[in-house]
Amino acid sequence: MKVTVGETEHLRVAASPVCPDGHGKAVIAEDGTHYLLECCTKAHPGVNHLSRAPGIKSKKDCLDKCQSTAKCDSVEYNNNNQDCVLYELGGLSHEDAPSGSHDWLFFVDPPAIPAPANITHMCSTDCPAAHGQKYVSDFGELFHMECGKPHGTAPFKEEETATYRDCLDGCAKLPRCVSIDWSSRTKMCYYGKHSGAAPITAPAWNSAYKLGCANACDKDGGGSCGCGKGKKSGGP
Is pLDDT above 90 for 75? Predict the structure, then answer.
């Protein structure tokens, strides 16, 4: 019997798969997968046996074994001889194990949690709405924008610009420019050569990096790049 998201809404999480304290609680594996722990319980009828691994020291190690085995979604752990048996199509079991000899863990949907909705404004270059969005400059260059994250690398040029957008367009005019850092406090724009996402978290900074020409992937573009074909006819 599969346990669904609705049924796991108020599911408690155990720090480790220890019985009896962890009974009826979720255990989170290394990759974030949730398993429900049933203490003193064996595999239920109808489950598909995959393999058996002897000499597994703990239920956590047994789960790790499951994680690395294709199709495995449940395990039965023998506390007496440290056997770890891997199964497919496991679910809620009502098969009692005498004297705590076996414990049963099976995959469950993770409990749903409330999350605030992010308000996104298309084509915005004002943070925080611009975070994660793409911007096509007046010169046809496509940028990926990030709010609150500078690259921090040494710039080859810097200048004061009134807005984040002006900094982006300034980079688009420079063939050497691959990325920018812009300070919302000082209005300083730093042109850099770092390709890729900004690694530093700093709320007063915005950044961006080039992805290439805006029309480079346009099938009807005749194979020509979009750079220089933006709102302006060209750049220096």
Answer: yes
Task: Tell me the torsion sign for CA atoms 108, 46, 79, 96.
Answer: positive
Domains annotated for the chain, with CATH where assigned, are 6-108 (3.50.4.10), 116-236 (3.50.4.10)
Rounded Cα distance, 37 and 28, in Å: 10
Q: How far apart are CA 121 and CA 133, in angstroms?
A: 9
Amino acid found at 126: D
φ, ψ at 116 (rounded to 5°): -70, 145
Residue of 60, 37, 34, 21 lying closest to 112 (CA atoms)? 34
H or E stretch at 102 = strand 102-108
Q: What is the structure's pLDDT at 2? A: 46
Report which DSSP code applies to 60. H
* Single-letter code of the amino acid located at 70: A
What is the end-to-end Cα distance of the chain in Å, rounded? 67
Looking at every residue in the chain, the average pLDDT score rounds to 87
**Which of these ranges, 11-20, 193-202, 226-235, has the smallest mean pLDDT?**
226-235
Closest Cα to residue 66, out of 100, 93, 27, 20?
Answer: 27
Interatomic CA distance for residues 202 and 208, integer angstroms: 14
Sheet of strand 205-213: strand arrangement: 134-136, 141-147, 205-213, 179-183, 188-192, 157-160
Give the whole-angstrom CA distance, residue 194 versus residue 151.
7
CA distance 69 to 72: 6
Residue 229: is its pLDDT beyond 50?
no
How many other C-beta atoms lie within 10 A of the C-beta of residue 46? 9
pTM for the structure as a whole: 0.57
